[in-house]
Amino acid sequence: MKLSRYILKYWYAYLLALICIITAVSLDMLSPQVTKRVIDDVIIDRDIELLPKLLLLIFIIGIGRFIFQYLKELIFDLVSSKISVKIRKDLFVHIQSLSLSFFDKNNTGELMSRVKDDVDRIWAGSNYISMLIIEVTIHTGIALYCMYNISPRLAIIPSVVLPIMGALAIFMENKLGKVYEAVSEESAQLNLVAQENLSGVRTVKAFAREKYEINKFLSHNKKYYELNMKQSKVFIKYYPYFQFVTKLLPLVTIVIGGLQVIDGKMSLGSLAAFTEYSSNIVWPMEMLGWLSNEFAAAVASSKRIKKIYEQKPEITDPANPVVLDKVEGNIRFDKVCFNLDGKSILSDISFNLEAGKTIGIMGATGAGKSSIINLLQRFYDTSEGEIYLDGVNIKNLSLKQLRESISPVTQDVFLFSDTINENIKMGKKHLVKHDEVTQAAKYAQAHEFIDRMNDGYETIVGERGVGLSGGQKQRISIARALAKKAPVLVLDDSTSALDMETEHLIQKALADIASTKIIIAHRISAVRYADEIIILEDGRITERGTHESLLQQKGYYYKTFMAQYGDFKELQNEQKQLNKKEAEICL
Predict the structure, then answer these.
(1) Largest CB tally within 10 Å, which of 328, 428, 563, 584?
(2) Per-residue b/e over 472-509, b at no fewer than 16 CB within 10 Å?
């Protein structure tokens, strides 16, 4: 990100603002000249007729300064606001374009600080900070020019003092810049801790960890406080020098200038004008420290945002993507391997899923089941092997068409703080009709509980669906996937929070949907009717087949089946034996 690119876009506005600054400052510098005329011509030379004209000139100068100062501030506010909005938008769009690997390594709190706090500091830097820096520079330059015109010898004093103050301001800025970096990083950590605790407040309370989390927050808060105090100490250490010089300079000017007036080398009006200029040059020096402080913050924020822009998405669209006229949903994995951070996640995964068919995937936690879905949606790319959709390598498809063709229900259900209707539509307000939302909810067995709510489908769910049970959130998530009407439907442990009866009803409804289905589950009931079931163990396929053939293999699938249905089978056998004995007695 180059800030200059945004500024140059509005060069004409900044040029107009610059003209307003020069005009306003010039009018301001004209006031001491009027004061000089009042003292020398009106008071000393007693030219009373000149007084009304000079007073009118003072009034015109005041009105002019008011108008041009107002225009200057208005232009800077408008332009800097537009720039900050554009920077924030571009930054958010860039973050959205980054691959999941970026989010695996960067926490939410830090990214929130970049999007909010750092952009705000850049806004300040491109607004009143830069405006004041320009004004201070022009003000100082014109004031020095006027002072040299009045008394070159007397003007040497501020000419010597100003470079010293400038060097001190730069030195202080360097000190502050290092502290600012640490303050910003700690601010991001503080945001992260607060965000995690507020999002997981129910977990915190459930485990009675309030005291621990408060201490954790306080430790970061204390560090943030200490860094701010360190910053303040730097500022306080050097700022008194500015205040001392700004108070001393007018005093020295009056003393030395007064001697020149006594010797007849300078008029009293000229001394008054020079003193007024020296007072006018005081406030720029007083502001040097503060401006350096704020400008250092803006520069540090710009550098942090630039680091994010240096991150490039690992998953990108091909230069000339293949466009499928219609996605049927035929999926093929060909010897797929996947490594992440040097660790093997999947090895030699191959299967062919015809359009409209269903495949079930089972395995222990961490076996790599969800990684198959992540690869299919190109959240990550395969380390080896290829994945095909309707015979086309997914790397040759646009990300938009690929991901629009897949409708996932993830195990980590996420609902936005919006209405149920909008959560099911997932932002496609004008593409999904209400009757389609209702139908999807009925398939997902969510219509009844939604209909019982006070506002029905317009009920606003809280953050991440707070207020809804786990099963209700899962059913809304399933309805969202069904409303998308994608050719490929992915159910990743999507019924884990549902009772057996509701799960059965959903599976019965899903059987009527023509989409290609990938069902990842731990329950046998979720996959038993799949056309093919594969078992993953340590990222490899160790078993594959139908429900009946896998039971005969007496492997992982059979053990899982017995663990879930063993007691029920024994009860069935006992009942059969009992029925057989009763039949024999009757005979």
Answers:
(1) 328
(2) bbbbbbbbbbbbbebbbbbbbbbbebbeeebbeebbeb
Short-list 414, 415, 422, CA closest to 458: 422
Helices (H), 325-414: 369-376, 399-404
> Minimal CA–CA distance to 333: which of 359, 352, 356, 347?
352
Q: To 10 degrees, the CA torsion angle through 61, 65, 67, 73?
A: 180
* The 3-state secondary structure of 54-119, one letter per residue: HHHHHHHHHHHHHHHHHHHHHHHHHHHHHHHHHHHHHHHHHHHHCCHHHHHHCCHHHHHHHHHHHH
Contact 519, 357 (CB under 8 A): no
**Tens of pLDDT along 460-506?**
886 666 667 778 888 888 888 888 888 999 988 877 767 778 888 88
DSSP letter assigned to residue 459: P
Whole-angstrom Cα distance, residue 492 to residue 585?
51
Segment 39-75, tens digit of pLDDT: 888 888 888 888 888 889 889 998 998 999 999 889 9
Judge whether 101 and 380 are in contact, CB under 8 Å.
yes
pLDDT at 334 over 90: yes
The H-or-E segment that residue 5 falls in is: helix 3-9
| CB 273 within 8 Å of CB 35 | yes
- Hey, what are 55's tokens? 């007073």
- For residue 275, CA distances in Å to 137, 253, 285, 398 come to 19, 6, 16, 71
Specify the pTM: 0.71
Cβ–Cβ < 8 Å for 40, 273: no
Q: Which two tokens stand for residue 525?
A: 């009931």
Task: Kindly state the average pLDDT of the residues 172-200.
Answer: 75
On whether the CB atoms of residues 42 and 51 are closer than 8 A, the answer is: yes
270 in Cβ contact with 321 (< 8 Å): no
Which residues are CB-neighbours of 350 under 8 A, at least 6 positions away? 333, 334, 335, 336, 385, 541
Confidence of residue 534 (pLDDT cuts 50, 70, 90): very high
User: Burial, 257: exposed, middle or buried (Cβ in 10 Å; 0-12, 13-18, 19+)?
Assistant: buried
User: What residue ranges define each of the domains in the chain, with the CATH number in brackets?
Assistant: 3-310 (1.20.1560.10), 331-571 (3.40.50.300)
Q: Which of 100, 98, 121, 95 is nearest to 110 (CA)?
A: 95
Answer positive or negative: Cα dihedral of 559, 565, 569, 570: positive
How far, in Å, CA of 558 to CA of 564, rounded? 10
Residue 36, token pair as written in the block: 């000089």
Rg over CA atoms, the chain = 37
Residues with Cβ within 8 Å of residue 212, at least 6 apart in sequence = none
User: What b-and-e string marks burial along 525-547, b requiring 16 or more CB atoms within 10 Å of the CB?
Assistant: ebbbbbebbbbbeebebebbbeb
How far apart are the C-alpha atoms of 196 and 562, rounded to whole Å? 40
Query: What pLDDT score does 396 carry?
Result: 93
User: In what helix (H) or strand (E) does residue 19 lie, and over which residues does it extend?
Assistant: helix 11-37
Whole-angstrom Cα distance, residue 573 to residue 579?
Answer: 10
